[in-house]
């Protein structure tokens, strides 16, 4: 299951990834050597090509505007490249341009912009479908209590551990009080908007898992519309920042991503980040008037926003709306919320030790990203060996929890952003290909180090009997392999013909790194059983971005097939089988997910085109025949200047999977049936007629006060300020 590890570049070829030009090293010898070819060509030699220009007008029609620009690290762009190559003679290696625009077999057709297929034809996202509904919506209407409880619990169980945008304990207590309130029209509108967004996300999930209690397929749009009326109208958009507004826009961005409205999600996420910056959530909070627990909740809100903003950067290939150097908020504490409040009040020294440990890790990460000239300064502030040993012992003593997994996920999230900044931004074009190779080697080493620091319970590469933390393992596994594909993707191309006089070591590095990219896709698919069971997978994996992960893996496999398995000729059968497996999973998910349906149509078409290039029968991957999906017809109508504003009908896929087998990931030896979704206990308190509090009052309420619930005529949220 482990990917083949490229040999580390020798000091003669790469002395350091931050100073690759020193590899010529005239100080070592007085004999002049002709520089190897990899030092003479730019980063355009790799699959990333030209990062500093575009070859499409993204404002030309509705389809182009709905899809928007996608950068070179997006699987949508990979799919576009694959479509180009599948329609051209593969012997000409037309998937890749020449170096710096020079004449080469690859440059014969690529630079003819008029002949390039638009990016919208390679997109499986649903930005062409409207999120508006035609009927009138009562923003204060709520679902039946039993349904509301299950929607709320679904969100808390599946989304909140990976996206803690609200304080779980505080909001749960508020929800119980809200459920007992007789007049729900007097509740704070921003709080109601947050609740409706939680309902919208839960409703989308209920249909993916085919829950018996699910409602109408369009319910999630109803909840979203209520939230938009209550908390994202013109007054709120132009209003000043507040914590609830950050939560509303953050949840809205997450919901839009979950329904594959990626372009809209990216825009709303940027608004959320702007609001967060206005409140200083990106910085360390030293205000003594804010309780330690409240500081931690605010830090988690910030990191939740970081997770979705950077996730969208991976999906779209667009830059994030903030720089790493602008952020000093510490990583989240490895403590669950139910213990956070008690520890903060009774053992503040424990919190400080965790904070100190987090600061030390941050300094080490900063050192790894800095230039060699700053290393001496970083080593001075790193701390004594005794303190490092103490921190290590403390790390090992931390019990596993979803909060601990979230912290590791955010470290990987931050590292992935570093990958994008170093390999896929416009200024990367100024580097030589040798420098890019050194950067890739360095990033691979850092990624391996991150994996080695995972607690054993979160190790996704080994068989485990544990079931409690399966969602955390799968989430980290998908994320890890996705990042590995992005790191090594620049070498997955026909690169050897584009670098004259390339050294043997550099050529071997290219080939091994390309194989590493394919192996990462293979290992990601290895997390899944061979028999598709989407309902089971949705229950234990990050359901809101599974299609994205599967499309990354499928596209990498088909890219290698389009190159006639040039990088790994002895593994043709495995590559083909993995591509088929990804397609089968997408087909199985297509009945309840429009994005999966579109993705499966795209993959099926391309797999039929590339399978003969590795000597495989396209019929082995059949399942659609000449079927033309409605989504493809919608795209065509958009390109003609029209867009369908009607709500999509429920998918009636002909290739639905109805297996009832429990989800059994390949890397686990056993797994029981899933936990059932029971009702939340209802509150026994009296109904409350007063308005909900402001964001500041919410953070400081004390539900443990015996006099807190005294009656319906008493304001039950104290008017203190943080």
Automatic annotation (TrEMBL):
Q: Which GO terms describe its biological process?
A: DNA-templated transcription
- This one is known as Xylanolytic transcriptional activator regulatory domain-containing protein
One GO molecular function term?
DNA binding
Could you tell me where the Polar residues compositional bias lies?
1-13, 101-119, 385-394, 627-639
**Domain of life, source organism:** Eukaryota
Region: Disordered, residue numbers: 1-48, 83-119, 354-395, 614-655, 700-722
Specify the Xylanolytic transcriptional activator regulatory domain's residue ranges.
Answer: 265-338
Q: Please provide the record's keywords in A-Z order.
A: Nucleus
Q: Which PANTHER family does the UniProt record give?
A: TRANSCRIPTION FACTOR DOMAIN-CONTAINING PROTEIN, ZN(II)2CYS6 TRANSCRIPTION FACTOR (EUROFUNG)-RELATED
């Amino acid at each position: 299951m482990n990917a083949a590890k490229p040999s580390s570049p020798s000091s003669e070829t790469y002395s350091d990834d931050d100073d690759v030009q020193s590899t010529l090293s005239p100080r070592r010898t007085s004999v002049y050597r002709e520089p190897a070819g990899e030092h003479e060509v730019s980063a355009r030699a790799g699959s990333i090509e030209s990062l500093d220009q575009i070859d499409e007008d993204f404002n030309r029609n509705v389809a182009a505007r709905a899809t928007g620009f996608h950068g070179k690290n997006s699987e949508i762009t990979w799919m576009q490249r694959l479509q180009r190559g599948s329609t051209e003679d593969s012997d000409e290696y037309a998937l890749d341009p020449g170096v710096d625009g020079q004449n080469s077999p690859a440059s014969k057709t690529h630079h003819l912009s008029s002949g390039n297929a638009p990016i919208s034809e390679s997109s499986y996202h649903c930005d062409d479908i409207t999120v508006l509904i035609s009927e009138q919506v009562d923003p204060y209407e709520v679902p039946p209590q039993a349904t509301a409880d299950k929607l709320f619990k679904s969100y808390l169980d599946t989304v909140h551990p990976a996206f803690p945008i609200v304080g779980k304990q505080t909001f749960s207590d508020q929800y119980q009080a809200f459920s007992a309130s007789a007049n729900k029209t007097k509740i704070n509108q921003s709080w109601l908007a947050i609740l409706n967004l939680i309902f919208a996300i839960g409703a989308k999930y209920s249909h993916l898992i085919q829950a018996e209690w699910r409602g109408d397929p369009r319910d999630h749009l109803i909840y979203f519309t209520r939230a938009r009326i209550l908390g994202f109208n013109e007054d709120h958009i132009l209003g000043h920042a507040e914590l609830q507004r950050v939560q509303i826009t953050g949840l809205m961005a997450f919901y839009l991503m979950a329904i594959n409205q990626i372009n809209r999600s990216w825009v709303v996420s940027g608004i959320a980040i702007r609001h967060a910056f206005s409140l200083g959530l990106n910085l360390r909070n030293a205000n003594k008037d804010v309780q330690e627990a409240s500081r931690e909740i605010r830090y988690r809100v910030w990191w939740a926003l970081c997770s979705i903003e950077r996730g969208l950067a991976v999906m779209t290939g667009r830059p994030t709306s903030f720089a790493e150097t602008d952020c000093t908020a510490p990583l989240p504490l490895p403590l669950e919320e139910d213990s956070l409040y008690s520890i903060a009040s009774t053992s503040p020294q424990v919190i400080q030790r965790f904070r100190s440990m987090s600061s030390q890790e941050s300094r080490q990460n900063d050192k790894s990203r800095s230039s060699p000239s700053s290393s001496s300064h970083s080593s001075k502030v790193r701390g004594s060996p005794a303190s490092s040993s103490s921190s290590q012992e403390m790390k090992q003593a931390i019990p596993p929890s979803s909060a601990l997994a979230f912290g590791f996920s955010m470290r990987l999230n931050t590292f992935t952003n570093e990958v994008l900044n170093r390999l896929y931004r416009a200024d990367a074009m100024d580097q030589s290909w040798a420098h890019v190779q050194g950067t890739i080697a360095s990033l691979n080493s850092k990624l391996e180090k991150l994996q080695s620091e995972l607690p054993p319970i979160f190790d996704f590469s080994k068989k485990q009997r544990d079931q409690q933390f399966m969602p955390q393992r799968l989430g980290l596994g998908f994320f890890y392999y996705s990042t590995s594909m992005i790191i090594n993707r620049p070498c997955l191309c026909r690169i050897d013909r584009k670098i004259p006089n390339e050294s043997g070591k550099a050529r071997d590095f290219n080939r091994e790194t390309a194989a590493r990219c394919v192996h990462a896709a293979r290992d990601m698919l290895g997390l899944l059983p061979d028999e598709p069971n989407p309902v089971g997978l949705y229950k234990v994996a990050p359901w809101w971005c599974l299609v994205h992960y599967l499309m990354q893996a499928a596209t990498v496999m088909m890219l290698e097939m389009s190159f006639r398995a040039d990088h790994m000729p002895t593994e043709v059968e495995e590559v083909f089988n993995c591509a088929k497996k990804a397609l089968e999973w997408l087909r199985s998910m297509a009945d309840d997910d429009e994005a999966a349906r579109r993705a499966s149509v795209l993959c099926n078409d391309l797999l039929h085109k590339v399978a003969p290039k590795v000597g495989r029968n396209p019929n082995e991957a059949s399942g659609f025949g000449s079927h033309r999906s409605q989504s493809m017809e919608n795209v065509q109508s958009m390109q003609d200047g029209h867009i369908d504003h009607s709500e999509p009908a429920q998918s009636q896929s002909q290739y639905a999977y109805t297996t009832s087998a429990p989800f059994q990931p390949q890397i686990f030896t056993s797994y029981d049936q899933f936990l059932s979704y029971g009702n939340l206990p209802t509150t026994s308190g009296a109904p409350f007629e007063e308005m909900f509090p402001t964001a500041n009052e919410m953070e400081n309420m004390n539900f443990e006060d015996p006099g807190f619930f005294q009656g319906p005529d008493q304001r039950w949220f104290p008017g203190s300020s943080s």
